[in-house]
Amino acid sequence: MPVKLAALRSRVELALAGRVTAPFRYRDRKIIETVPAGIPEIDSLAGGLPRGGLTEICGPSCSGRTSLLLSALAERTAHAEVCALVDGRDAFDPQSAEAAGVELKQLLWVRCRNIDQALRATDLLLQGGGFGLVAVDLSDIPPETVRYVPLNAWFRFRRAVEDTPTILMLLEQEANAKTCASLVLRLEAQPARWTSTGEIRALENHARETHGADFFSACLLDGFDVRAEVLRSRMPPVAGTGFHDDFAAANSVDTGIFETKAMWGYLGGLPVEKCKRK
Amino acid sequence: MAFASIYVPDFMVQSVVRAEPALRGRAVALIEGAPPLSSVVAANEAAWLVGIELGMNKLQASDFGAVEICPRSLALEKTAHAALLDLGWSVSPRLEDAAPDAIILDLAGLASLFGPEEKIASQLIERALKLGLIANVAVASNMESALHAARGFPGITVIPPGEEARRLGSLPVSALLPSAEILETLEHWGVRNCAALGTLPVLELSERLGQEGVRLHELARGVRTRSLTLAEPALFFEEEMELEDSVEELEPLAFLLGRLLDQLCARLAARSLAASTIQVRFDLKPSFEKDFCSLSENFLGKSAPKTYQKTLALPVPMRDSKMLLKLLRLHLQRDPPLAPIVKITMTADPARPRVAQGGLFLPASPDPEKLELTVARIANLVGDANIGSPESTDTHRPDEFRMSRFATSLGAAENRRKNGRSAAEAGRENGARENGRARRKSDVVPAIAFRVFRPSVPASVELCEGRPVRVGFRGMRGDVVAACGPWRTSGDWWREDGWQQDEWDLEIRFYYSSRLPAEHPYKNGQNIKRTALPPCGLYRFYYDAILQNWFVRGMYD
Predict the structure, then answer these.
(1) Quick check: B113 and B253 in contact, CB under 8 A?
(2) Cβ neighbours around B443 below 10 Å, total
(3) Residue A62 belongs to what H/E stretch?
(4) Do B363 and A165 make contact, defined as CB atoms within 8 angstroms?
(5) Is the pLDDT confidence value at B466 over 70?
(6) Are residues B135 and B257 in the same domain?
(7) Could A101 and B423 be called an inter-chain contact, meaning their C-beta atoms sit closer than 8 Å?
(8) Which of the two residues, B211 and B418, has the higher pLDDT score?
(9) A134 — contact with chain B (CB < 8 Å)?
(10) Domains in chain A and their CATH numbers?
(11) What's this model's pTM, rounded to 2 decimal places?
């Protein structure tokens, strides 16, 4: 029997010669390096963003996907990494990004008109290499269109970033990359928070006295809470460490909530310029 | 003191062969003059052996099937001469431009850099080959001996001091370039080589041939000395190519551009430089249709462009001809010339090559050369204006920014790394300052992000006591749950594109959508399902006081 096994083994090795080196050798499990996403709640929930892997951020409109993207971009550019954003529908707001702390000079922005352009541009960027984070924003593209992207496109992207320090982040309404994704996060927004400060109330009174009409809405958008779910992860939810063993937690669902905050600036007593840090 | 002379035999032919490497090793004859009076003005050794003679007309020369007949090109000779000068300056700054096909170098002090004279000569031969020239190199203790030895002997010749007369003795008198009259006289006397000329008595020679005879006598004995007339080092890198047949398609054009780039990069490499900008100029030949159009345009006072220029500004100095060709091809694909090309002129602006050493603790960034290629490829896909780095402008106009060229800078990244605090840290400190209390790391709150609709989406808004209460856009309708505004902004009123807007932040609960998925599975059946409505959304609306209409600027996400 051992003789037969040895013969079988040598035949398999012979058949795979040139294509697979040492097919029977035990392959070490990979160590996945993760980096912070810029939001502590997400980091403690998901263990950070995996380098050399595909991260999917999905959720409906106004669910906080872009806020998470900007936080990740701010974190990476602050560490002097070069990032790229493939904007599927040209919806990126540079002022908002600057307010979130993104170093715009470190960001390559590709403004696409359709999903075909976005996928081709992503492929070129990944093949070029050297980016810390490549984000593909397909949020505004209908989910049924993204669904038609063949699975081998995501597989190709995953292979392109594998064994590189690049984080590939995909923003969409539904998760589509299936097993190609190392981390899938689903976001959902909670009702918005509105605040009314004394200064705003004074403005309202001033407007009422001046114009004699009650058309000034005495509140400010403060932000909204976002509920995040881990739908799929290859990393354990451990905070504070950068390296984790490779394991799949596809069936487990972890949730967490983080809040977003509106940034307001003031000019000449009136809140005219938004999205700037105080 | 030693001098080296570099001589390019059959210079006119070699300058043509340099531009068309396929001719290397073949018999080539050059013709000049307007047809049908064009005649052979130069040929290489292989062509002479076949039987080509000077003055043959083109028809006679073409009878020799093995001989390639090419037109003489002054432009190619000019660039070949520039390449020869670059070859000299690559070794020594002290150089004399002796003739179009020969230069003289001062080798004083170069032994410590390049080694002995034989080694310097062999290096010069190698470098000349890289520049597309086959040269003879001679080293001697005086300039004239070196020059005549280079003209007379093939390959490398090193003449030790004191042996000039003996080594030059075998050279024919014609190698000293005497006038035709003196050459005839010397032949009449039976003086055919330098050894014979050198043995003639000087006084008698002076009486019969004058000072020219004395000069030739000194040259023949290798004792004539003079000072080096230094050539001014020039940093001008240009290559030209005139085309017999005009080129219309990109593939053959790329082939020609590749040749020019190879030559240009070899010259830059010889001077230890790289190109910061590549400029390409095409002389265009109007086609018949274009002639007809331009005729009608001339009546209207317009004229069709006769040249086409393209400037390739590089992020870092480069001299990789393959990479430059790829970039040039991508640029030409995007914006091709509109007429056949009859002449190509390529110029490089020289700059010091990039010298950078990556830090051990610096994050990896894209290789600038590779990144430029990637950006050019994506620009071909999405358009030049749609790729780059966003940059804020000094205005309060909504959604105003400009796209700047994206370039990675290692130095800038390092500085940021040194001085840098992460955005989260900066935000935390700002927040702590604002609230007057220290905040923990977990208190870091991300800024709410905004997504822009480009262009703004027209909307219908129902107002109640000046406040929006019901809105509709993109086929969706919803009730306003909360509203904040109006924030009035205006500006540029002195321009035609001034703006005046009242902005509102609205939280909307949707109750209707007319949108259907493009490929809905039940579209043709009975079970028509509406697209899932977002339950709530935060949008920014504005009333444009100039257009007197409502629009949606974008949404908070």
Answers:
(1) no
(2) 14
(3) none
(4) yes
(5) yes
(6) no
(7) yes
(8) B211
(9) no
(10) 29-190+223-259 (3.40.50.300)
(11) 0.76
